[in-house]
Amino acid sequence: MAIHEPNLTVLLSGEVHSDWRERIIELAGEQGLPVIFTAPITDHASSDDCGVAILGSEDSPFWRDHKGARVNAIRTRTLMQRADLVVVRFGEKYRQWNAAFDAGMAAATGKPIITLHPEEHDHALKEVDGAALAVARTPEQVVDLLAYVIRGELKTSVEAS
């Protein structure tokens, strides 16, 4: 009997100021992992302006932001519902309230979460990490986790304990 490799849909949420998404996608492709990756809109201008660009202008910055946030929420909620697993990246430079919100939404809906952040964020993210099933430090670790989840494969460099 052959064991079937599941196809996974993985939402890559969080920080938009580095190439972590591209690295994960590239590494997973190199390993031939059957993964469909999705992500929120990562272009700041498009994300900020989508509400007024589609639904009309707003005089107040407050309502401009709310209109954009709600339009973006349509995408994010849809992708979250379709995801089998959510990777949430917290970067070094900015506070990512949206990433924390996405992690909370994933936890509330029972989605498996992998957080990705530097060790310096451990204390600040202790509650988020508490809801995660794994805390990764590098995109390579995320891909190793995906390979294990999909194929049950460990890197050959991993020594038995």
Sum up the overall morphology in one term: globular
Strand content bin: 5-15%
Unreliable stretches (pLDDT < 50, length at least 5) are none
Number of helices: 6
Number of strands: 5
What structural class results from the helix and strand content?
alpha/beta
Percent in helix: 40-55%
- CATH topology of the domain at 8-41 and 83-151, anyone? Rossmann fold
The end-to-end span amounts to 30 Å
Question: Nearest-angstrom radius of gyration?
Answer: 17 Å
The ordered H/E elements are EHEHHEHEHEH
Identify the notable features of this structure and list them briefly:
alpha/beta, 47% helix, 5 strands, 161 residues, 5-stranded parallel β-sheet, Rossmann fold
Task: Walk me through what this model shows.
With 161 residues, the protein is α/β, with parallel strands linked by helices. The protein has a domain at 8-41 and 83-151: Rossmann fold. Helices cover 47% and strands 14% of the residues. The protein is built from 6 helices and 5 strands. It has helices at residues 20-30, 44-55, 61-82, 97-108, 126-131, 139-151, and strands spanning 8-14, 35-38, 85-89, 113-116, 134-136. The protein has a 5-stranded parallel sheet with strand order 2-1-3-4-5, with helices on both faces. Strand 1 (8-14), helix 1 and strand 2 (35-38) form a beta-alpha-beta unit. It is globular. The model has no long low-confidence stretch (mean pLDDT 92).
